[in-house]
Amino acid sequence: MTSGTSGSSRMLLSTKDTNTEFFLQGVTVCLDAMRQAFPATDRLQKTLKLFYSPIFRQSEAGIPVGPNSSTPASSKHMLHLYTTPAPVYEVLNERDALYLHLLFGLKDRYLGMLESNFCSTVFYAFRALQEHWKDLVVDVEVGMINSNLNLKADVRRSLEKLMKPDPERAAELTAQFEEGFERIALRIWPQLHLILTVDSGSNQIYGEMLRQHYCKNVPFYSPFYAATEGLIGVNLWPQQESRQYLLCPRSMFCEFIPEKDLDSEQPKTLLMEQLQEGHNYELLVTNASGLFRYRIGDVVKVVGFHNQCPKVEFQYRRGQMLSVRGEKVSESLFLGALKKALKQWPGAKLIDYSCVESGILGSASGIAQPHYLVFVELKGVRNLSEEQRYKLDHCLQEDSDIYRSFRIKGSIGPMRVQLVRDGTFQELKDRMMAFSSTSSNTFKMQRVIRRREFADFLLQRAFS
To answer: Which of 99, 121, 133, 258 lies in the 20 to 30 Å Cα band around 140?
Structure first.
């Protein structure tokens, strides 16, 4: 099942061929690039891999249906790489599983790497660490598992056999946590060499927050550009700040629709060798598991060539565009304006955000003209003045000529910026996952909310 980030979930066939191609053209290539760029990752140190066991259902014919991710515990020889022991992968409650991932990670002061599919998972793990560190330290000190975790008896027994009292490590951790959480990753794991996770696209904001606070001075490597449909690109330049992915010509057969033709009834398509640097294209894929000329909705920008193969940067998903009058504001364009506005909100740090088109909320949106409602979770400020809120509207007008023209004409009303209480987006994530077939490993926050119940949920949690 696809994650359903920008529409309903789709059910696709997963075959041995597509999985093999992903491993040979993706995983092995990126491991080689990683070891060349970060030689210390070759040391015999363990990795804290944040992974949540997905729940699979059976089709009528008995075929398992679920997200496209395999549990590390399914390959017993892989478990030796990770701090998390096998019984944790039997824990289906995400909060309990996260606690256990953190507990066994904290026990190892020589940890070498943090790994997760997406950067959002790493960010929320550090927020959970900040919230629960006292309980975690007690468990490390006494060599027990917190009694508040809802675990099966056999899982608890198996895990407690792996625990030993370690008052020395507990004291070391306490001293670091009591100093605060800036640069905490390197303070509790002094030999941490790398964070291996995708921090491009909708995960960009989480990567920036981690680099500014919890994970200062730790390098990040965003290895893949991939989808449930298959592997699209690999990042051969781990130390480059902009995330560029080399398209993989043999993973899937790709065609490209020029951005100017996206709304055509029968758009013309180009092949890889016909692409031009600096231009945007939507991806069309044909893969080994039965998809034929399938539009996955991603728009990418060609930023150069490696030998003769295009390098791309992810731009936006078509289903995540704001458009109340046909203006089509992409996620990357809006995020750029939001970052500019943040610089004009003294002390404010962005935790998360989503937008809603006023038509979704009807009369609850406030004013009659079509407009955007922007829900932001901020740290460091309790309120914003009307003038500060208007900065976001002004920044978007500066960056988008078409949005500005509609605002000047009065066809689009002023943007409404609503602050939501702390933890709102974590709750929203849980709610969204309850409505879909996705798992935490593949979840991406929707930047444009299309469902009324999610928009109402944010409205109810707005305090300013």
So the answer is: 121
